[in-house]
Amino acid sequence: MGWSEDLRSNLEGIHAVYEAAVDAGLESIVFASSNHAVGMAEVRNEPEVYHDTGVRAGHDEPHRPDSPYGLSKSHGEDLGRLCAEAHGIRFYALRIGAVRAPEYDHPYGDAERGVDEGRWERGDDAYAEQVARMKGLWQSRRDLAQLVDRCLRDDSVEWDHFYGVSANDRRWLDDLDHARETIGYEPQDDGEEWTAPPGEE
């Protein structure tokens, strides 16, 4: 398995940031990890996982990267744990689900972007599958901002990871109780509350 130039730069960047944090004596690091660090939970169960079939990757899910990208995020989490345990820097890994640009910040976002790019038509099977996936994996931009804020305000965690998802009924990345109890994360949005893209309700 080879590393692309982007991934090599990513790995080198992670090391540089952690070395700088240790040298500067920072108190905490918030790391943008990814759902791809445990992505095999999705890959091995798709498309059924998109329809709330009971598949869950809980807080205790071990690393199950689905790609070199996911492996690089797993490496970043492990390096962060080393920083925490060896150097006393609090470390928060955010296994972000699907956060999109403002115009696509809703659970129909990936499906609508596919329409805009001519990859499928609204209402066809590919469109429907993208909606089903995002209704489980979506994290609204305001919920991500709250999650980061809760990490930055926390002073209790030594090392931990949290799933970056909104309070979606059909989510399979499922540690919201842990995030609530540990850092007070209370997501405001739920993909299931959307029945159509903006302007089509």
Could you walk me through the main structural features you see in this protein, from its secondary elements to its overall organization?
This protein is α/β, with parallel strands linked by helices and 201 residues long. The chain has a single domain, classed as NAD(P)-binding Rossmann-like Domain (Rossmann fold, 3-Layer(aba) Sandwich), CATH 3.40.50. The strands form 2 sheets. Strands 1-3-4 form a 3-stranded parallel sheet, sandwiched between helices. A two-stranded parallel ribbon has the order 2-5. The longest helix is centred in the N-terminal third of the chain and has 20 residues.
What name does CATH use for the topology? Rossmann fold
The CATH H-level homologous superfamily? NAD(P)-binding Rossmann-like Domain
Helicity range = 40-55%
The total domain count is 1
CATH class: Alpha Beta
Distance between the termini: 45 Å
> How many E-type strands?
5
| Mean pLDDT across all amino acids | 94
In short:
This protein has 201 residues and is of the alpha/beta class. Helices cover 43% and strands 12% of the residues.
Set out the fold topology.
Layout (H helix, E strand, L loop, with lengths): L4 H20 L3 E7 L5 H4 L13 E2 L9 H20 L2 E7 L12 H8 L8 H13 L3 H13 L5 E6 L8 E2 L1 H8 L18
Parallel strand pairs: 1-3, 2-5, 3-4
Helix pairs in contact: 1-3, 4-5
